[in-house]
Design brief:
This protein is an all-alpha fold. It is about 60% helix and about 0% strand. This is Chromosome partition protein Smc.
């Protein structure tokens, strides 16, 4: 089977014949027996010469019958002979070397397959990112020239497209790292194969001529089955010149392109409010309670020389200039921006969409389903909708590493956005904790300090 299908991949075999890739792998390695009808189809397809086809088919069917008879033997038949053969084989250094070489080659094949899959996945994600970039650009142009009544719908489509573009970019970075790791593993597998080949040669050559001392690898460098060093130097020189020319071409193209419109010039998202800017080693963020929610300079809670907008954060050497000021979310998109900042701080790779869905909806709902829940979480991050209940938002920010004060900040922002949207709005925008938010609303428009959030578990769920 391996000789017949040596130039064909298992993917191609799966398309041409009624068997899966897993089965074809088993047929080719001998762990499973191929059906006789399928064997006839394979021989008929890959051996065009009639005489040769009949010979190989007869030989293959004969081997298949022998294998089937051996498989039907009782478990105790030939057990003693098998043990003796295995022991004799295990004591033979050459046989052990062959086995190790075979295992190394199998690992090499697996590493090459992983690398091919990683490269294909990177290509697919690159195409997806390109499509989403074009979609975002088209939606931005359509939004700018659309009528007033159509701008809201286009803005929602644009926000969702930008969120999916961000997720695709994060997955592309993961795929590229996996591809690099697969390439390193392939090199390591090739090195193991080379080492096992050398060990095998060391075992075989003295056995062929016991009286002659083992000299190891030939000392003649020109006899090695590799390109000469002169050829390698020439190839490196040509490649270096090609890379230099490519870098010059890319630099010229970069100068001709407008950086404001290129996909690579997209500015990163804003920092999470309350996280020290450019200080990744400052530890967890602590949110100090905001004394003045509407930033009124005449508030009785604000000292004479204290700025109306306070900053929060914690870190050695952190000052007010280093910290990002508190930004009170007053719209759905502003709240979504803070969610995206928190998501970026927690790590977008560590928290993909499916893991966020598990954190927000720990108990699966047959009425909604996973796809609906994933679309809901994506729309929250994109800013096209609000969670239907505070408990969902609390689960999301808590899973992303927000401490008690930060959860309280999101609670106040959530209540403020609901108040601006209208507590009598549609059910999808109003949580079940309406009475508690109604008591919280007076603090949104006054200078009084909001209720403490020391024990968030006491808040109605």
């Amino acid at each position: 089977m391996r000789s017949l299908t040596s130039e064909v991949t298992v993917r191609q075999l799966e398309r041409d014949f009624p068997a899966s890739k897993a089965l074809w792998s088993q047929y080719r390695c001998g762990s499973s027996l191929i059906p006789a009808a399928l064997l006839r189809e394979v021989v008929a397809r890959y051996i065009p010469e009639p005489v040769r086809r009949e010979q190989l088919l007869e030989e293959g069917l004969h081997l298949l019958r022998q294998a089937q008879e051996a498989a039907r033997r009782p478990d105790n038949a030939g057990a003693h002979t098998t043990v003796l053969e295995v022991r004799a084989r295990a004591q033979d250094p050459a046989a052990e070397a062959f086995l190790r070489l075979d295992d190394a080659r199998l690992r090499q094949i697996e590493a090459m397959q992983k690398l091919a899959v990683s490269e294909q996945r990177c290509q697919q994600l690159e195409e997806m990112v390109s499509v989403l970039e074009k979609r975002c650009g088209t939606l931005e142009a359509e939004r700018d020239r659309a009528r007033q009544d159509a701008q809201a719908e286009l803005q929602q489509e644009l926000a969702l497209s930008q969120e999916y573009r961000r997720q695709a970019g994060a997955q592309l970075e993961r795929a590229r790292r996996s591809r690099d790791e697969a390439y390193v593993l392939r090199l390591a597998a090739e090195a193991q194969v080379t080492q096992e080949q050398i060990r095998l040669r060391q075992q075989i050559e003295p056995a062929n001529d016991p009286g002659a001392p083992y000299l190891g690898v030939s000392t003649d460098a020109h006899a090695l089955p590799f390109p000469s060093l002169d050829q390698i130097v020439d190839a490196l020189q040509i490649t270096r010149e090609q890379l230099d020319e490519q870098e010059r071409d890319l630099g010229a193209l970069r100068e001709r392109l407008n950086p404001d419109t290129t996909a690579t010039a997209r500015e990163p998202g804003p920092l999470l409010h309350g996280h020290p800017a450019d200080r990744p080693d400052t530890g967890h963020v602590r949110l100090e309670r905001v004394d003045n929610l509407n930033n009124s300079a005449t508030s009785s809670n604000t000292p004479g020389n204290m700025p109306a907008t306070r900053v929060f954060g914690r870190g050695i050497g952190a000052t007010a200039d280093d910290l990002v000021p508190v930004d009170e979310a007053a719209a759905t998109r502003e709240l979504a921006r803070q969610l995206r900042d928190l998501h970026a701080r927690a790590g977008q790779e560590q928290w993909p969409a499916e893991r966020l869905v598990e954190a927000v909806f720990p108990e699966p709902n047959e009425d909604t389903g996973v796809s609906f829940a994933e679309r809901a979480v994506t729309s929250w991050l994109a800013g096209t909708s609000l969670p239907t209940d505070w408990i969902y938002l609390k689960r999301l920010v808590s899973a992303l590493g927000a401490d008690a004060d930060e959860v309280g900040s999101f609670l106040v922002a959530y209540a403020r956005v609901l108040h601006r949207t209208g507590l009598d709005g549609p059910p999808a925008q109003v949580p079940r904790t309406r009475r508690w938010f109604t008591r919280l609303v007076p603090f949104m428009a006054s200078s009084r300090t909001p209720p403490p959030f020391d024990d968030l578990d006491d808040i109605p769920r």
